[in-house]
Amino acid sequence: MEKVFCQRGEKSFILLVISESSEEIRKNQIQGGNFIPAISLEGFESATDQRRGNGVYRKATEAMELLKQKKLIYGISACYTSANFESITSEEFFDSLIEKGAYFIWYFHYMPVGNDASTELMPTPQQRTETYRRIRHYRALKPLFAMDFQNDAEYVGGCIAGGRRYLHINANRDIDPCVFVHYSDSNIREKTLLEALQSPMMMAYHDGQPFNENMLRPCPMLENPDKLREMVAKTQAHSTDLQSPETAEHLCAKCDGYAQAWKPVADQLWEESVQARREKQKGS
Ligand code: SF4
Question: CB atoms < 10 A from the CB of 172, how many?
């Protein structure tokens, strides 16, 4: 990483997700100027240590303190679940990050990916609605830029995966459409990036986007699981999970109930948002 990316004048930009920041990382950040660490937190100490291991919160907050002292830009990566949503989206937590000098926070919705993934951690429609409202409220008022990966699709025209704006390459060099969707028909050792982008799986993404006109239901997995089932079946993409390959059916079946419960709530929220935009346009 040091040789390839962290040099002055390098045009690539890197976002590195970490749980603590070493001296080497800070040195590279100062020298290179082209990458920014995002520290993973699950909320305050008990929530973070419960999910990531004892002592992780302390190390992460020490790293944040050092980054602040060195005046380095950094952000937070935060996954909201049914278990930690209250803490991780609380005003107290948000304000604590401002005090620690974070510049942005990137909220991710919990995804039930993996054979052992729990569906109980998926936020309820009420929790997701509250998260949507809280993050927009903070964004309007507070000096910490908050992005909500699952509820902000309207700003990027829906799903960005499958090479539309990005893709994911795993440790085995398999090219997945998204960091959360581990089904692929390409490997970077066998194809050029352009060939991979023209592969059946990536083209299925291209042809299917946007997967829903309602931008609060953007995902072919989480909110429209039949779309992922269809793409995987049509393209014969295989699971690229290196430890325990999961079938698309197994994954999508975990999302069916969630998608059904979220749909009426999302439709109402989206209607409210469309109405608000119309009112604003009329007034301007
Ligand atoms: S596949 Fe789903 S999670 Fe990935 S970018 Fe598209 S909408 Fe987001």
Answer: 12
What ligand 1 atom has the least distance to the C-alpha of 160? 5
Atom of ligand 1 nearest to the CA of 161: 5
Q: Helix (H) and strand (E) counts for the chain?
A: 11, 9
pLDDT band at 1 (very low <50, low <70, confident <90, very high): very low
Q: pLDDT per residue over 226-263, tens digit each?
A: 999 999 999 999 999 999 999 999 999 999 999 999 99
What mean pLDDT do residues 50-69 have? 89
**Rg (the chain; Cα; Å):** 20
CA of 68 to the centre of ligand 1 (A): 32
Give the number of the atom of ligand 1 that is nearest the alpha carbon of residue 222: 2
Q: What is the CATH number of domain 2-151?
A: 3.20.20.70
Q: Where in the chain is the domain with CATH 3.20.20.70?
A: 2-151
Mutational pocket test of ligand 1: of 113, 178, 232, the residue with most ligand atoms within 8 Å of the beta carbon: 178
Q: 71-75, 163-167, 259-263 — which is least confidently predicted?
A: 71-75
Measure CA 86 to chain center: 19
